[in-house]
Structure formats: structure tokens, C-alpha cells
Amino acid sequence: MELDRQVQQLADLIDEINKEQTSLDRKKLITLCTIDVHSRDLVQKLIDERVEDQMCFQWQSQLRYIQSEKTKTCQVNICDAEIAYNYEYIGNCGCLCITPLTDRCFITLTQAQRLVLGGAPAGPAGTGKTETTKDLARALGIQCYVFNCSDQMDYKAMGHTYKGLAQTGAWGCFDEFNRIPVAVLSVCSTQYKTVLDAIRAKKERFIFEEAEISLKSTVMAFITMNPGYPGRAELPESLKVRFAVGWALAALGRTVTEHVTCVAIFAAVPVSLAPHPTPRATLGAACVLEPC
Ligand SMILES: Nc1ncnc2c1ncn2[C@@H]1O[C@H](COP(=O)(O)OP(=O)(O)OP(=O)(O)O)[C@@H](O)[C@H]1O
Ligand SMILES: [Mg+2]
After folding, report:
1. With left for phi above 0 and alpha for psi between -120 and 50, is residue 150 left, alpha or beta?
2. Helix H segments across the chain?
3. With respect to CATH, is domain 94-250+272-281 assigned 3.40.50.300?
4. Closest ligand, as measured to the CA of 276
5. What angle do CA 44, 46, 48 make, to 5 degrees?
6. Does 288 score more than 50 pLDDT?
């Protein structure tokens, strides 16, 4: 029944996409279509695996939006993490294909937030570490800023960045974090610990580098790395313990490509629907919470 409804909904969306549309409306419809393809696959999987209990992992591991009974606002649940939707305007920016590995990456990163840690997707270049982090931020209605780290970054620049993030509650995704020299990384770890300690203590204001600033508890830092690449530093232990590490493996290139192709065939508008039809469109994330 539910599957039939999903398939019908998808067919209706495809009809809409095939009609004359403004580019913004088309983008919106394609996003809905991408999400619906995932929902259809999920319902099919639940049927195939004869899942009947709402507490089963297959269902619990999905991002689920509900209205909180207490606050009457939107709340996002995934496994045992309960995250208040942040209502940040994020625009009409499309969404990534949702693969089983995207799901695992989301679980790791949301568990990291629940445990008041940072997130650290790691893996080879082009496996979707940055994009998956941004996609999760969008799903939670949080603003996410990506910083391209270089060996020129010093502790002052990092301090200013943390200050801004803590005051706005935005997420910071520090790309190629292990390009920063080890000496600076050690200071970064102390700076980030100050922020995490203030979140744990549920403070509204806290002292950061001798200045009192406000704190929004949604703030979180993510570091993405290509481990083992030449010229990259090994993270100091003091920093590793502040981040939950998830590994993005290149092996799932096929999954995203299949997914994109599937959406494209379904909607019969291949060019606009395959947002990144390059071999780089490979997301992998056999995410594990590693005790560092
Ligand atoms: N699930 C997905 N669906 C569609 N496109 C994806 C998906 N995951 C990644 N991509 C695409 O793959 C490309 C590479 O992704 P991204 O920049 O996140 O990789 P990365 O792992 O951060 O790479 P680097 O190590 O070079 O920073 C992007 O163009 C992105 O849009
Ligand atoms: Mg990246």
C-alpha cells in the first residue's frame, strides 16, 4: 500500500518535472524526486526484510522528522539522537543522492553531536566527505561553512573562526585539516575543547581566549582529511579524542552512480538530474565510531 503510494507520488513528480517549469521550480522538484527515490527504496527494503517494529534499526537509522510534543517545534530523530531542527534558511540548493553509506555517515556524525564531539569523515579525495557533512547540516536546518585549510593557517585565525561559529551556532567543516602544521593543531585542540566544555556545561556565555562571548549549542566542527597523503600532518592525540572518526571509502562509487542514473531514468531528464555525472561522484562511508 505505502509502496504503491510512494511510486504514484514519484510518477506524479516526474509528470510535473516534464512540464514547463522555471529553473528554480525544476530544481525543487528534482530535490523532492531524489528524496522520494530514497523513500521508495527504503519502504521496499522494509517490506523485503519484513520489518514490523518501529524500533528496528532499519527504521531507526533514518532521519525522521517529528513535531516535538513539548516544544511543538520540529525535531529530527536518528537512532537515539534527538536534534532540534534549527530553522536556518538554507535556500533551494538541491540535495545529494542518499545511499546506505550516506545513512551510516549521518548516524556517525549525529552520534558525535549527541556525545558533544566533533565529526571527522576521513577517506580518499572525492569520496563525498565535505558534501555529506553539508548535506546533513541542510537536513538539520543548520548553516555550514566550509574552510579550506592550508599550512598558512595559525592559531589566531582558528581562534577567530571558532569564536564566530560558537556565537552563530553554525557548523564549520575544515577541509584538508591535516594540512595545518602540528604545532597549530595542538592549540586548535585546546580551543575546541573550550567550546565543547561550555556546551557540556550548557552555558549561554563563556570565556574564549580572554573574551566573553555568547554560545549557541548547535555549534559543531568537522574535520575532513585524506590520511596518508604527502605533506599532511598526523593528528595529535589530544585532537583525535575530540572527534568521532568516520571513514569514507571509495568503494561505493557504483552506489551513487546507480542512484543518479536511477533518478535520471525515472524522471527522463538525464542532464539536469545528474548533478555530478563525473567519476568523482563517489560517496562512500563505512562509518565507524572509532575509539581514538
Ligand atoms: N551522495 C552523493 N550524490 C551526488 N554527488 C555526490 C555525492 N557524494 C559526493 N558527490 C559529489 O562528489 C564530488 C566530491 O565530493 P566532496 O567534495 O564532498 O569530496 P571530498 O571527499 O570532500 O573530497 P576532497 O578530499 O577532495 O575534499 C562533489 O562534486 C559532490 O557533489
Ligand atoms: Mg572535501
Report:
1. beta
2. 2-18, 23-48, 57-60, 100-114, 129-139, 155-168, 182-200, 237-240, 253-267, 270-273
3. yes
4. 1
5. 65
6. no
Residues forming a β-bridge with 207:
212
Where do the domains of the chain lie?
94-250+272-281
Protein residue with least CA distance to atom 14, ligand 1: 126
Q: What is the grid cell recorded at 243?
A: 572527534
Pocket lining: 175 vs ligand 1, CB cutoff 6 Å: yes
| Contact (Cβ atoms closer than 8 angstroms) between residue 149 and residue 120 | no
Q: From the CB of 225, is ligand 1 less than 6 Å away? A: no
| Mutation probe of ligand 1 site: the residue of 105, 276, 278, 282 with most atoms within 8 A of C-beta | 276
Angle between helices 182-200 and 155-168 (to 10 degrees): 20
Cβ of 6 less than 6 Å from ligand 1: no
Q: What's the 125 CA to ligand 1 centre distance in angstroms?
A: 8
User: In this predicted structure, what is the pLDDT of residue 268?
Assistant: 33
Judged by phi (left if over 0) then psi (alpha if -120 to 50, else beta), residue 184 lies in: alpha
Q: Which residues, other chains included, contact 178 with Cβ-Cβ below 8 Å and sequence gap of 6+?
A: 185, 223, 225, 226, 227, 232, 233, 234, 235
pLDDT tens, residue by residue, 144-177: 999 999 888 889 999 999 999 999 999 999 998 8
The whole-angstrom separation of Cα 105 and Cα 103 is 5
Q: Residue 71 C-alpha to ligand 2 middle, in angstroms?
A: 36
The three grid cell numbers given for residue 256, joined into one nine-digit string:
551513487
Cβ of 101 below 6 Å from ligand 1 = no
pLDDT-based confidence at residue 76 (cuts at 50, 70, 90)? very high
Q: Which three cell numbers stand for residue 172?
A: 564549520
The per-residue pLDDT of the chain, averaged, comes to 81
